């Protein structure tokens, strides 16, 4: 039997009302907290007040850094790290979607090791231990609350890059489905399809093992069942199931990383500001159809037992109200060459998780089929 490696390194609480119940445990990890968030949701929803009331009651001081952009870049991280150092914060509380959690994890590295986040892309050794990170996700797709990855836009390179280390996995993660009640329906399905992509890509990664495949398949089963149902009956029970699917997808992703779907999806986000999960959902059927004919026959056959032929996956995406073709999002055929060039850059890291090499012609064929 193949070997198995699993290291979570985190305490995870999945429970409604969990923020009030478990956030006081943050005092185990620091005395002054940098709250990393986006600029809007945490304040409009009342979540910021709820969190700061708990911190104040526990005697923990805090500084707010609402500097995580929807597609966070190196400046978001470096500016946050400067504030963290200036204020003497010794703990990061990341609240929001994947952007806030990724920025928080990256700040944790830069704040104790200096320089810019650009110095820490990839898997590098840190001279000093990163600050402890506590995560409260408010979307149901990222999985960042349980992974060793922080994905940041490098605008100079026109792609996303990744800080990767088990040392940045959040020490405490609180998944409280009540935070999802303010999430618009379109973001529920878009972030849910990001989780779907995490699981499906994880299953196909050459780093997958017996345990990670169990996580991937169980996540996919939940998402296949409950993502369509959220459109029919949008309540907390269904959103909570999608949230659980996202968490389990994070377990799989943490072990394996992604394959080329994410890297190709970055091109749509960078060039046309397409939501990350939406970009992945659009490309999934076309990438999988290509892989099924190019070395992944066995794995794709196993996944298709869950959703049927690839065309049914395309129908699934349409059923959720998401775009299923490049021209649906305003991309012209004359842009395929640029997307292809950017995909070669964007998939550089994930190619390590593929069975074999892929060239520019392969990416072009996928984009042409998706047009």
Report a brief summary of the structure.
The protein has 14 helices and eight strands.
What percent strand?
5-15%
Gyration radius, to the nearest Å? 20 Å
Mean pLDDT: 93
Tell how many strands the DSSP assignment holds.
8
Level of helix content? 40-55%
Sheet bearing the most strands, described?
A: 6 strands, parallel
Structure, described:
The chain has 371 residues and is of the alpha/beta class. The protein folds into 2 domains: 11-179, Rossmann fold (3-Layer(aba) Sandwich), CATH 3.40.50; 184-370, Up-down Bundle (Dehydroquinate synthase-like, alpha domain), CATH 1.20.1090.10. Helix content is 50%, strand content 11%. The chain is built from 14 helices and 8 strands. The chain has helices at 18-22, 41-44, 47-57, 74-87, 98-113, 185-204, 210-232, 236-256, 260-272, 276-292, 297-307, 310-319, 336-346, 360-370; strands spanning 11-14, 32-36, 61-65, 91-96, 132-137, 149-154, 159-164, 172-175. Strands 1-8-5-4-2-3 form a 6-stranded parallel beta sheet, with helices on both faces. A hairpin with a 4-residue loop joins strand 6 (149-154) and strand 7. Helix 10 (276-292) packs across helix 14 and helix 13 crosses helix 14. It is globular. The mean pLDDT is 93.
């Amino acid at each position: 039997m193949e070997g198995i490696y699993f290291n979570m390194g985190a305490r995870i609480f999945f429970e409604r009302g969990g923020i009030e119940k478990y956030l006081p445990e943050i005092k185990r990890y620091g005395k002054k907290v940098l709250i990393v968030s986006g600029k809007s949701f945490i304040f409009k929803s009342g979540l910021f007040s709820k969190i700061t009331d708990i911190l104040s009651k526990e005697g923990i001081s805090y500084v707010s850094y609402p500097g995580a952009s929807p597609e966070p870049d190196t400046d978001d991280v470096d500016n946050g790290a400067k504030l963290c150092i200036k204020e003497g914060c010794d703990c990061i509380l990341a609240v929001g979607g994947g952007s806030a959690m990724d920025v928080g994890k990256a700040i944790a590295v830069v704040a104790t090791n200096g320089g810019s986040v650009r110095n820490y892309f990839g898997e590098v050794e840190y001279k000093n231990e990163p600050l402890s990170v506590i995560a409260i996700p408010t979307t149901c797709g990222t999985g960042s609350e349980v992974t060793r990855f922080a994905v940041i836009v490098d605008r100079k390179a026109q792609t996303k890059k990744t800080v990767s280390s088990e040392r940045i996995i959040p020490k405490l993660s609180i998944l409280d489905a009540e935070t999802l009640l303010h999430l618009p329906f379109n973001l529920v399905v878009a972030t849910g399809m990001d989780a779907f992509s995490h699981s499906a890509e994880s299953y196909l990664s050459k780093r997958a093992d017996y345990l990670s495949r169990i996580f991937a398949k169980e996540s996919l089963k939940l998402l296949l069942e409950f993502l369509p149902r959220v459109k029919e009956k949008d309540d907390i029970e269904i959103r909570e199931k999608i949230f659980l699917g996202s968490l389990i997808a994070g377990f799989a992703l943490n072990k394996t990383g992604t394959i080329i779907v994410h890297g190709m999806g970055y091109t749509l986000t960078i060039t046309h500001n397409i939501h990350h999960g939406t970009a992945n959902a659009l490309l999934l059927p076309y990438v999988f159809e290509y892989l099924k004919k190019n070395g992944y026959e066995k794995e794709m056959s196993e996944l298709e037992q869950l959703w049927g032929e690839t065309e049914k996956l395309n129908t699934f995406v349409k059923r959720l109200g998401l775009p299923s073709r490049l021209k649906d999002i305003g991309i012209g055929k004359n842009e395929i060459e640029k997307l292809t060039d950017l995909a070669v850059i964007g998939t550089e890291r994930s190619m390590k998780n593929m069975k074999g090499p892929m060239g520019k012609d392969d990416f072009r064929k996928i984009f042409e089929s998706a047009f």
